[in-house]
Design brief:
Blueprint (H helix, E strand, L loop, with lengths): L1 H19 L14 E5 L2 E13 L5 E10 L10 E8 L2 E7 L4 E11 L3 E5 L5 E6 L2
Antiparallel strand pairs: 1-2, 1-8, 2-3, 3-4, 4-5, 5-6, 6-7, 7-8
Length: 132
């Protein structure tokens, strides 16, 4: 009986440690984002380094990303500016406005040399294909 109790105690401790094991954090290579991505009429461009743009009010900003929707008759030259960072699976866009920065947080579920898939805060999944 004592031997059986030791076996159960051993198994309890073993499974207790196994339940505490954290899975490894997924991390994506930010350089895989560089380029132009398309989802329908929506485009996003991720730059390797900062680019300089002049806002309508004359202010100069430095950003590393742009997005536009050709269905809204917006061209790449008129694109919404943003700064992006990638940490693990979290892709953050900070959209540049005249007086304010608007953050948007996404969770990447797939990033390859040709496909980018992420979810927004509302659970909507976006599927982009690399076009440049």
């Amino acid at each position: 009986m004592k031997k059986l109790l030791h076996i159960f105690l051993f198994l309890f401790i073993l499974f207790g440690f196994a339940a505490c094991h954290k899975p490894t954090e997924i991390s994506y290579d930010a350089s895989m984002l560089y380029g132009k991505w398309q989802e329908g009429s929506v485009y996003e461009r991720y730059y390797e380094s900062l680019i300089e743009r002049v806002l309508l009010n004359g202010d100069t900003v430095h950003v590393n990303g742009t997005t536009w929707d050709e269905a809204d008759d917006v061209t790449e030259e008129e694109a919404q500016l943003f700064n992006w960072t990638l940490t693990g699976t979290t892709l953050k866009h900070e959209h540049v406005g005249t007086f304010v920065m608007v953050p948007k947080i996404y969770t990447i579920t797939m990033l390859t040399s040709s496909h980018l898939v992420y979810k927004d805060d509302y659970g909507k999944t976006h599927h982009f294909s690399k076009v440049e």
